[in-house]
DNA sequence: TTATCACATGTTATCGGTAACAACATTTCA
DNA sequence: TGAAATGTTGTTACCGATAACATGTGATAA
């Protein structure tokens, strides 16, 4: 492995000039710069990040703190993880996965935090002494990255209204967190705007629980019912309930989900959903955190992704495949 | 952050003695050792891994090289990834995710390689100049970690025979790779041993393709047919085909999968499968690679995990839930 | 012409560790 | 008893980079 000194020797300059070419190229004359760059290319130079970290008093480690109790098999977090990992990697930062308990182990340059609940702010987040970004909207003024949750359910609700449904239910997760309140708000707002009466139900984020609840709500009564679900997991349960009741999907019952991470595609029929580009969001989150670190930890602002409506067989017979 | 020098000052010894207490405690007198350890505790000492990496000429980076074209949303790889990440993290190694194209970017101390196909050995794996471990069995004599694929399909096939099925098909993936051949072999061997005629079909690892193929094979003919599938993805397709044909599962058609990573649980009915403890396997893989690196890269041998049969509704009406 | 300044480049010290060797004390054994 | 072996601790140099400062050059202005 070639080092700074090797390049310096080859280009007949000092180590410092080589270092400058890398970090402050404008401070080196064009002539020497070219010499050095050529030498670097010829010797296939790769900087030693450990050395740089040492002298800059950095760890080159970013922690991903997942506060929610999570199932490691959950594709949602796996996608987030890989998005972050890919981006950090590009900038030669390492990712350390930590939880509530292990969060203090080892040093780091910054954190990405997700899965926070109301109680976590006082206890954990307010106490942070490093730059961080929250993955998920919050109303405490902390920098975050999220999808526009309210617009997401607006899109699905409007879609169902367009299809002619009059009875449209909302199946949410029983958490009073900003993302959930926003999804419920998007639904309520759209229903009111169309003069329809909202009916909201809240439950655990589980397909089985949702299936039971849906079985009750879809029985008899109205021949055409649609359900706006706050997650694909819940939507899967509702689809199953519909099939079990012998309802024709999407004519007698239409269902929309939220997330668009894997689950939507393995259901049968496939689920119309709001796609959150989690991998991309993870990348952006990492990128913004690094930027925040490099600018000394100053506030960097929020980033809200536009939600994307993916139409599938749970609402339309032959959707345009893409 | 306290450093070696801080500890040394506090304990009134030299830096070197502190370093020895950490790396070669037997070379330091019990008296001084205690002094140093106390100082370390009091100052809450955490070693600087960048500095150590620098002086030991290590990168503290392990690459995970995935040769197979992969869907990043695939829970299988996500589990592997997180298993490896958790273990590496414990030893303060960073994980870098690379593919065929990006594999040469950046330096590393070792690699975990997976998804290799026959052609990859000459081109890539034989040329490696760092210690590595393959995730997945191979017949080239390279160290690997895998589940016992042959025994896996033996277990599922025997299970179906026990249930009284006489016509038992095998749905495999159309790859002539060791893991696939082993899964086919486990099936064939068990069928022969019971005097039953094997029928093998090979296809793309896709639930839709499997559904089409199963639709053909499950129609008419035999009132009771079972299918041993080489992946849960294929099994999901077969289950759907069975339901579409109006067959009663598990009486008229029974299906087993392979992998036990998420997919098996979201199917309805849930799928009897061979569980591969991927997260645990990833951890072990990382642990063995580090061991291999520390012992200078010498061969370390293979590790084969025992497969575990998980019985669910696709083969038994009311399985014992656990 | 010469003091001053800006700019380009080199020198030195340093980050936090560890290896190699030196120095000293203590045993061991002829 | 004293030379050699052994064990414990300290000194020095170095890993590969960068910051801070020092030096040297030519241009500019008084």
TrEMBL record, chains A, B:
UniProt KW DNA-binding keyword: yes
InterPro entries, per database record: HTH_LacI (IPR000843), LacI/GalR-like_sensor (IPR046335), Lambda_DNA-bd_dom_sf (IPR010982), Peripla_BP_I (IPR028082)
Sequence ranges assigned to domain HTH lacI-type in this UniProt record: 2-56
PROSITE patterns: HTH_LACI_1, HTH_LACI_2
Pfam short name (any one): Peripla_BP_3
Keywords: DNA-binding, Transcription, Transcription regulation
Entry protein name: HTH-type transcriptional regulator YvdE
Species the sequence originates in: Sporolactobacillus putidus
